[in-house]
Design a protein that fits this description.
This protein is mostly helical. It has one domain (2-81). The protein is built from five helices and two strands, in the order βαααααβ.
């Protein structure tokens, strides 16, 4: 996404920098119980190296809002416009 002139006036040049969470970290851990998240993500081409399973659950894709919907709203509001779509390959948490 790239900002627009309107964004400078309306939001001090700010726009979304991610989709935003739909599930809290604790709720994501509850939802993930009994699932093979490592396998699910690997099947999507996302590879994981982690110290613990809890981190994986906290960052699973369904813990976040639909990025296409978020981008569409920001673009419709005139704050940003799409320039590229990236596919996640991994998550680094520290």
């Amino acid at each position: 996404m790239v900002g627009t002139e309107l964004a400078m006036k309306e939001s001090w040049g700010s726009t979304c920098h991610g989709a935003g969470r739909v599930l809290s970290r604790s709720k994501a851990n509850k939802v993930a119980r009994g699932r093979e998240l490592e396998k699910e993500l690997e099947e999507k081409g996302i590879f994981i190296l982690t110290k613990g399973r809890r981190t994986i659950a906290e960052e699973m894709p369904e813990a976040y809002k639909d990025i296409n919907e978020v981008v569409g709203i920001v673009e419709k509001a005139g704050l940003s416009r799409k320039v590229a779509k990236l596919r996640p390959l991994g998550v680094i948490k520290g």
